[in-house]
Amino acid sequence: MKHLNPSQIQMVVQIAKHLRNRSALLSKKERKLRSAVPRGGNDCVDTPDYLARLIVRHFRPSGKRLEPCSGGGAFVRAMPGCDHCEIREGTDFFDVCGHYDWILTNPPYSQFRAFLRHAMRIADNIVFLGRYNAWGTRSWQRDLREAGFGIVE
Fold first, then answer.
1. pTM recorded for the entire structure
2. CA separation (Å) from 82 to 47, 90, 111, 139?
3. How far is the CA of 152 from the CAs of 1, 25, 78, 143, in angstroms?
4. Which of 15, 102, 140, 142 has the greatest count of CB atoms below 10 A from its CB?
């Protein structure tokens, strides 16, 4: 695994500040609603356009790119010409095969591990926007190690 350079650290801090500031603008009731992940797998949390653009600008994905759960389309708008799936539109990420250079997405938290496993089978580079605690579970860390992946940033 590579270490973060100063510009990468600055990028992570910038994203964290955006998320924290955005949360601070929400009312107490909105924060409570937003913090709860809906049950039953219906946990579509649309990525804001500014955050998708920030992430794409930082990682600069090239080649064949996929947004596997496009939701409101922020990553699709930030990566013109990328392939995308959206289960609500009839395209299921788990039916995708072939090879991708990059996958960038905000996966549904209830299916995070399944999305990660499938993404590691079909892509060389994966960027998931997710909760920090999602990356700390031993089972997901084992999945990453066994597939030859690691957390870089």
1. 0.71
2. 16, 17, 22, 30
3. 6, 30, 22, 15
4. 102
Residues 76, 78, 80, 83: what is their CA dihedral angle, to the nearest 10 degrees? -30
Count how many Cα atoms sit within 13 Å of the Cα of residue 54 in the half-sphere of its side chain. 17
User: Taking phi first (over 0 means left), then psi (-120 to 50 degrees means alpha), and beta for anything else, what does residue 27 get?
Assistant: beta
Q: Kindly tell me the burial class for residue 58, based on how many C-beta atoms sit within 10 Å of its own C-beta (0-12, 13-18, 19 or more).
A: middle
Q: If pLDDT is split at 50, 70 and 90, which confidence band does 100 have?
A: very high
- The arithmetic mean of pLDDT across residues 69-95, rounded, is 94
Specify the pLDDT at position 138: 79
